[in-house]
Amino acid sequence: MPASDFSQAVRSESQRQHNYHRFTLRPLNGALGAEILGVDFSQPIDDGMISEIRRALLNHMVVIFRTQNVSPSRLAKIGRYFGDLHINPFVSGTDDVKEVISIRSEENHEKRFTGLWHSDISWGAEPSMGSLLYAVTLPDCGGDTLFANMNMAYDTLSPGYKALLGGLKAEHRVDRFHHSKAQFADTPTPVIHPVIRTHPETHKKSLFVNEYFTSRFENMSEEESRPMLDYLFEHAVRPDFTCRIQWSPGTLVFWDNRCTQHYATNDYSGQRRLMHRVTVAGDRPY
Ligand code: SIN
Distance between CA 166 and CA 169 in Å, rounded? Predict the structure, then answer.
């Protein structure tokens, strides 16, 4: 299906589901992402609000809340509304809150955090359900984050390719591209996940390989896997499947790692950017 027809179908399906009672929601574009107005995370959040935010996340994959005021401990509490929090074994926590990691680029850093498309913790046996990222300090301009819709990436493949990929699994490893492999005392164990996964809540299929962590297909060498993986990495992030988020201090973004990938742009050389992130634990892909 051409991407334009598909995004039309996504849009009309999500329009039907836009009866939110607790806030106003504005979709960003035809692919994914929605801005939510009328939620203040500095106040207690009740079960009705949590379930509406969850529904918005399932419909739009990425939800954006502007002008929040969230300390690391409050961010951990907000994350826990949506599930248990993942503790990253390779990155230490922030301000004594072990579940909150700082994503920090200083003025003199040559390398920035990521700059490669990925889904958080796909290198784990149970990859993350979702991540919440809060903007603390930002460059004057730049440092946007791009997101891509992996349901669209799957749906726009041909029937033959879908059938081929449906029988494949792939290896994911945290050290595939890592800037400083030296940080790993022991080689972390790679994991194997299906190339096509089914979302445990929406039951939609999505492409689940990413440039940052996926190294090869199961039972194939990296060289043999390379051409097909390269095709999939490029296909997955076609502009038609993406949205771009421009941050301001106090922006909080919550995304679903089971059906998206994201990419932090590296375009603010010589400037500082500090974000706080919590990662909600997920389950084994199938
Ligand atoms: C991340 O990869 O989780 C961070 C994205 C960003 O810093 O924009």
Answer: 8
Ligand 1 pocket test, pick from 145, 245, 255, 271 with the greatest ligand atom count within 8 Å of Cβ, gives: 145
Cα 164 vs. chain centroid, distance in angstroms? 25
CB under 6 Å to ligand 1: residues?
Answer: 103, 113-114, 120, 131, 133, 145, 262, 264, 275, 277
Least reliable range by pLDDT among 6-10, 23-27, 163-167, 183-187: 6-10
**According to the model, what pLDDT value does residue 106 have?**
86
Q: Which of 118, 128, 277, 126 is nearest to 213 (CA)?
A: 118
Residue range 206-223: mean pLDDT, rounded: 97
Give the Cβ contact number of residue 274 at 10 Å: 16
Separation of alpha carbons 280 and 271, rounded Å: 29
> What does the mean pLDDT of the chain come to?
91
pTM of the model: 0.91
Annotation says 120 is catalytic:
yes
Q: Which domains are present in the chain?
A: 3-280 (3.60.130.10)
What is the distance between the alpha carbons of residues 195 and 15, in angstroms, rounded to a whole number? 30
pLDDT score for 177 = 78
**Token code pair at residue 275:** 């974000």
